[in-house]
Amino acid sequence: MSKFVISAALTGAIHTPTMSPYLPITPDELAEEARRAREAGAAVVHVHARDPETGQPSADSALFGEILKKIKAKADVVVCTTTGGGFGMTVEQRVSVVQTYSPELASLNAGSLNFALFPILDKIKDFKHEWEPQYLQMSEDFIFPNTFKTLREFNAYFMQEGTKPEFEIYDVGMLSNLAYLLSKGNVKKPVYLQFVLGILGGLPATVNNLVYLHNTAKELLGDDFVWSVCAAGKTQFTMCNLALLMGGFTRVGLEDNLYLERGRLAKSSGEQVEKIVRIASEHGLEPASPDEARRILGLKGADKIGF
């Protein structure tokens, strides 16, 4: 395909406000970030909610609704809501956004893993908010739970709402999990995979690992899938460029990487979108529009969402 889908992950639940003054926190800031990302070439924005006062990741349904409505009013873009949530959130809290707002697309993590951020504490000693060091330290003893039971239940909610799962694949065993769910009819083809590389506890962001994931997906799932890549920190653009060369899609944004280049903070996810568009143009590739992304990913359409 000459068109590729760009997702922009606007804020996430990994970085804390001390790490960058440009991290969007409030509903208005997230809506503005969505607009900037869309204008730069993103077709999809991936959304988490944060407490507007403290910046702490939040599962508040009303807050999520405010964010979604403001993004819809400001940007013609596909919204991919998180069901990953943040550290300490219950399964019910994580999936409630799908049940309540019936988005076109939502993330669905395909297995459990250690998800560690605590090494950041070696680099930052003074934080803006009391919750930040406690939140990071908690990750040393944290398992991100996505069991076969919860995966089955999550997928049932997605099917009920007509929401397309974006399966987050942090390691190769998660492809086996997905193949099993497909065999039991809990998931329907075609599937959409997001390979997530470079998280401490997941697969490192290397060329060999991305090729291995892609080849294993073909062996286990056949050819009936589309895929994208996101990578943590400094490996972001290297892995996204490789994905383009391999025929995949890309995700950039401040959730994954706070920098535009070495030593220079990105002022917006939109800046990162602009950069990957420039890189893609050298390969003769153009970013898909939101409507083109809907056709490529097999989404239900913006007229069928609940916000």
Q: What do these coordinates show?
A:
This protein is 38% helix and 19% strand. By secondary structure, the protein is α/β, with parallel strands linked by helices. The chain has one domain (3-304): Aldolase class I (TIM Barrel), CATH 3.20.20.70. The protein has an eight-stranded parallel beta barrel, surrounded by eight helices. Strand 2 (6-9), helix 1 (27-40) and strand 3 (44-47) form a beta-alpha-beta unit. The longest helix has 15 residues, at 207-221. The protein is globular and about 50 Å long. The two termini are 31 Å apart.
Describe the structure concisely for a colleague:
The protein has a single domain, classed as Aldolase class I (TIM Barrel, Alpha-Beta Barrel), CATH 3.20.20. The chain contains 10 helices and 16 strands. The strands form 5 sheets. Strands 2-3-6-7-10-11-12-13 form an 8-stranded parallel beta barrel, surrounded by 8 helices. The chain has a two-stranded parallel sheet with strand order 1-16.
Question: What is the fold's blueprint, element by element?
Answer:
Elements: E1 3-4, E2 6-9, H1 27-40, E3 44-47, E4 49-50, E5 57-58, H2 61-74, E6 78-81, H3 91-101, E7 105-109, E8 113-114, H4 131-138, E9 143-144, H5 148-161, E10 164-169, H6 173-183, E11 191-197, H7 207-221, E12 225-231, H8 236-245, E13 249-252, E14 259-261, E15 264-265, H9 269-281, E16 286-287, H10 290-297
Helix pairs in contact: 1-2, 1-9, 3-5, 6-7
